[in-house]
Write a structure and sequence with these properties.
about 70 residues, alpha+beta
Amino acid sequence: MLRLNPRNMTPVNLLSTHLEWWQHNWFFASIISLVSLIVTLIVALKSPESAELFYKDDKRQLRVKYKR
């Protein structure tokens, strides 16, 4: 499945090898993608930085809070 030859490890060959792995293991790849999406959403919703946005507009500091 994975052919790793150090002599011809160009970026194109690495990309084709990676895409070949995803084609042959689409079930595991879909599980990995789903788990990473869920973990990303949980981390984004739990972080306190996602609740407040700070930015400057017209030399005034506006504070926007999103209430959940």
